[in-house]
Amino acid sequence: xxxxxxxxxxxxxxxxxxxxxxxxxxxxxxxxxxxxxxxxxxxxxxxxxxxxxxxxxxxxxxxxxxxxxxxxxxxxxxxxxxxxxxxxxxxxxxxxxxxxxxxxxxxxxxxxxxx
Amino acid sequence: xxxxxxxxxxxxxxxxxxxxxxxxxxxxxxxxxxxxxxxxxxxxxxxxxxxxxxxxxxxxxxxxxxxxxxxxxxxxxxxxxxxxxxxxxxxxxxxxxxxxxxxxxxxxxxxxx
Lengths: 115, 113
Known about the structure:
The complex is a heterodimer of chains A (115) and B (113). Chain A has 115 residues and is mostly beta strands. Chain A has strands at 4-7, 10-13, 19-25, 31-38, 42-51, 54-57, 64-66, 76-78, 87-94, 105-106, 110-114. In chain A, the strands form two sheets. In chain A, strands 2, 4, 5, 6, 9, 10 and 11 form a seven-stranded mixed beta sheet that branches. In chain A, strands 1-3-8-7 form a four-stranded antiparallel beta sheet, with no helix packed on it. Chain B is built from no helices and eleven strands. The A-B interface holds A 4, 6, 33, 35, 40-43, 45, 48, 50, 56, 58, 88, 90, 92, 97-101, 103-109, 111 and B 9, 32, 34, 36, 41-46, 49, 90, 92, 94-95, 98-101, 103-106.
């Protein structure tokens, strides 16, 4: 079955360390997205990519970085510059690259905790 | 830029009662809207897609969506709540430039026996 795989499901990081969250899709979708979810805050967009080797900042990109070297993969790095990284991170993909008309397919998320 | 507001961070209903969740938009009528459902520690699942102009849209698990232009609202309803409906519900509208979706802050639906 096609879908989006996020790994790991739980991740613990020490303060000052960078950490990379994996997101892989086999849906042949062009667009991929990273959202951050905090209790009571809904989903906030971190980065998105509509095509390989290109990506755009979302509303809360500071302290994060991404790459899109392959269509299937869109890893997110949480850097030490992110002041409050503890959150639930969701990756999504869409067959759309411009209209959002078909909505998103979501992964199951990665819960990152800074210890 | 379009903003989306979900009224009520928590809604409590009894099993068998009507479920009604509301999503308000801020500016022009969006061409479409999505309702997603999220169970604890999981990703979001598409519940239904509403396209402006439709009168009523049926989604999964018995949910329906209705557009109230006079109230700048989209309603998500289910005639009879089931315990398994307890989850968080998000609406999403096209974001700036229509390249992304803007999500509401979510409404947690609590179902009591």
